[in-house]
Amino acid sequence: MQILVISGISGSGKSVVLNVVEDAGYYCVDNLPPSLLPELITTLSAQHYPQVAVAIDSRSAHLLTGMPETVQALRQAGHAVKVLFLTASTESLVARFSETRRSHPLSHWLTLKQTVDTHMTLTECIEEEREILAEIQALAHIIDTTDLRANQLRNWVKEVIEIQHAPLTLMFESFAFKRGVPLDADFVFDVRMLPNPHYDLDLRPLTGRDEPVIRYLEAQPVVQEMYADILQFLSKWIPSFKEDNRSYLTIAIGCTGGQHRSVYMVEKLTQHFRSAEQVLVRHRRLG
């Protein structure tokens, strides 16, 4: 059975993900207590359900202990288990809760860190939730939804659920430093020191996927030197992540606007690794 465990910070887009996977044919369960997951899978397996998606989040905070062992046991039983974790910057989450005027799931909780008659502020709830879900996040492929539109998130989730089972999936991601470093990055490479096509008026409206920009950057020796250095580093260390049983590795490459240099570098690295690895590509600023 294919099992997708969906978790993440409240307000980061879990409802969007649940709608996507339900449309893809998954049997979906929201807010399942983690201790009931093995029983649910046993029941649905007996009824020959091929795909199941389960949302587990901070609403079951006191029941989250042991999730890594549960996921490992399901994999040992022969199930293909993926864990997807959504996050976003605290500033973005505060803005979203302000827009919807909904309270945070933890807003009425009283924790040991506080006096018995003190409620947590929204920012405190978000930070508390990050701590509560840290154990699940460590198991997961992470998607940072800080500056994503809903359609982008839907497309990225479709890519994740459609990829074939592989020891390691590489996620190459371009981004704009002026928008902040993505929270889902395992490695971050800065290519802002490379020649910038933005200052050529003919190249400015194009992207790193367009042939004129590609020709411009490939004619720069320093660009090829940077590419070779990044390639050498990743080629050396990717096998270590496989040995460590990692399922996903996200490599983020940033330039100032996330349109030319970082996009070019991501596309070039993808071409190299695609023949040997399971690879996904994301361009945060290209929609």
TrEMBL record:
Residues bound to GTP: D57, S58, R59, S60
Binding site for ATP: G8, I9, S10, G11, S12, G13, K14, S15
Superkingdom per UniProt: Bacteria
Domain RapZ-like N-terminal: 1-161
A GO molecular-function descriptor: ATP binding
Annotated RapZ C-terminal domain residues: 169-286
Annotated Pfam families: PapZ_C, RapZ-like_N
Keywords: ATP-binding, GTP-binding, Nucleotide-binding
HAMAP family the record matches: RapZ_like (MF_00636)
Protein name: RNase adapter RapZ
Designated gene of the protein: rapZ
